[in-house]
Design a protein that fits this description.
Blueprint lengths: L1 H41 L9 H8 L8 H15 L13 H4 L9 E3 L9 H4 L4 H9 L1 H24 L6 H16 L6 E11 L2 E3 L16 E10 L2 E10 L5 H17 L6 H12 L3 E4 L2 E4 L1 E2 L4 E5 L9 E3 L14 E9 L6 E2 L5 E4 L11 H13 L5 E2 H6 L6 H9 L3 E4 L2 E2 L6 E10 L4 E3 L7
Antiparallel strand pairs: 1-18, 2-4, 3-16, 4-5, 6-7, 8-11, 9-10, 9-11, 11-17, 12-16, 13-14, 13-15, 17-18
């Protein structure tokens, strides 16, 4: 009995030992599994947002390898935000300089130069590396003019859509000038309007803008010439168009637009000015117009012309005729020109008429002693606000000048200031005008004021 019990106890002890070993193994396995689960819980899922430190690194432009996807999305959003373009308001009010934050403004229409006496030099300019280098040297100047041109384009687009019969001429001029001042970001003599808004009607071809109190109203049957200028640092855009409401004047408008484009095409380095005038007249006078049962040949107004432009000087010395027989003077590299043509159903000659509104300080006048204190005060206002740029009586009013009529006459009598009265053909006729500013760049001709409208 005693031996069997010992055997049983031994067997039981062996089983207990085996059970303990199994429990230890199970405990180890369970411990390993729990440890794995804890590790899995600690491991960051792929789509978890980065910790605060990673966000800071992102802000500093650093990359985290486990955060590449988030970085890509963030950069994409930033590009979209940074690349968003400011859009002009309607009516336009945002300065052009804000619409083009990179400082590069739209280039005008590019034309190759015409052949002069079958000399291919003009054509070769377009591809010449030497001429391209000269172009780049003057790019800052070209860019200033392009800024002024874009302000002109957007202003006239607004006016063309806005202008209606029944508006007063003062109302039209003030809307145009206020718009242009905003777009050019007017700043004293650094940026602003280059000369008063011409809004000459019918037989009056040029140099009319309303003085204070003028109650003239634009009518449906009027042919109005809108001629205004913008400038940056004295680099002037001189550009004009004719606006009509009655389609019976379409042929007159077409003739003058065609003549202006002909003059632009003919212009170029080493081209004689008289040759440009001859081509303009030929095209202009090939047109006829029927008005109220009578046929008129459209004539070039022979005592009006285009002109060269220099900083703060609208008429810089060279004239571009619009009839044959002018000067044989040639156009030169890097000159600026206003190519403008006038067509008329009248005599084709203009004369001074009506009350004067346009004035301009004489660019070449030496020092002139002034006796009247009122003349000295007025000249100080002119120097501060306009310099040698053209101005009108409305602008003197705006600048704060008062009771200046006698002083203005005194300055004109002494040759310090020149007056420019309205220029008119015979009463009852109709005149039209188109004008563009061009640059004779070393490589090409740039019609810097060209737009979708004309």
């Amino acid at each position: 009995m005693a031996a069997l019990k010992t055997e049983i106890l031994a067997e039981n002890q062996h089983e207990d030992n085996n059970n303990r070993k199994q429990l230890e193994i199970d405990d180890k396995e369970n411990s390993n599994e729990e440890s794995k689960k804890k590790k899995k819980k600690k491991k960051k899922p792929a789509n978890t947002a980065p910790p605060v430190e990673d966000v800071t690194h992102e802000a500093n432009g650093l990359k985290e390898e486990d955060n590449v996807e988030g970085d890509k999305k963030k950069k994409k959003r930033n590009r979209k935000k940074g690349g968003s373009k400011i859009v002009q308001t309607d009516p336009p009010s945002i300065p052009i300089i804000d619409l083009f934050p990179d400082g590069n403004f739209p280039v005008g229409e590019i034309q190759e130069y015409p052949l002069v006496n079958d000399d291919r030099t003009a054509k070769d300019r377009f591809t010449s590396e030497e001429k391209k280098a000269l172009d780049r040297m003057h790019n800052d100047i070209y860019n200033e003019v392009r800024l002024a041109a874009e302000a002109h384009r957007q202003t006239r687009k607004h006016i063309q859509e806005w202008i209606k019969p029944g508006m007063t001429m003062i109302e039209i001029c003030e809307e145009l000038e206020n718009t242009a001042r905003k777009l050019i970001a007017e700043e004293g003599l650094k940026a602003g309007l280059a000369f008063p808004t011409g809004c000459s009607r019918n037989h009056c071809a040029a140099h009319y803008t309303p003085n204070a109190g003028d109650k003239t109203v634009l009518e449906y049957d009027d042919v109005v010439k809108i001629d205004f200028g913008t400038h940056i640092n004295g680099r002037i855009i001189d550009c004009a168009f004719t606006h009509t409401f009655n389609p019976k004047y379409d042929k007159l408008v077409e003739a003058v637009r065609d003549a202006t484009n002909t003059g632009i095409k003919a212009a170029g380095i080493d081209v004689q000015l008289c040759e440009v005038g001859a081509q303009i007249q030929e095209v202009m006078e090939s047109y006829e117009i029927d008005l109220d049962g009578k046929t008129y040949q459209i004539k070039s107004i022979r005592n009006l012309n285009g002109h060269s432009i220099s900083p703060y000087r609208i008429h810089a010395g060279k004239t571009v005729p619009i009839v044959k027989g002018g000067e044989a003077t040639v156009m030169e590299e890097n000159e600026f020109y206003a190519i403008e043509t006038f067509g008329s159903t009248g005599k084709g000659v203009v004369h001074d008429d009506m009350e004067c509104s346009h004035y301009m300080k004489n660019f070449d006048v030496p020092y002139v002693p002034l006796r009247l204190q009122s003349s000295k005060t007025l000249l100080s206002i002119i120097n501060k606000n306009f310099g040698t740029l053209a101005f009108c009586k409305r602008w003197l009013d705006r600048a704060g000048a008062t009771k200046y009529q006698m002083a203005l006459k005194d300055l004109c009598d002494k040759g310090v200031v020149d007056d420019y009265p309205p220029l008119c053909d015979i009463k009852g006729c109709y005149t039209a005008q188109f004008e563009h500013t061009i640059i004779l760049r070393p490589t090409c001709k740039e019609v810097v004021s060209r737009g979708d409208d004309y």
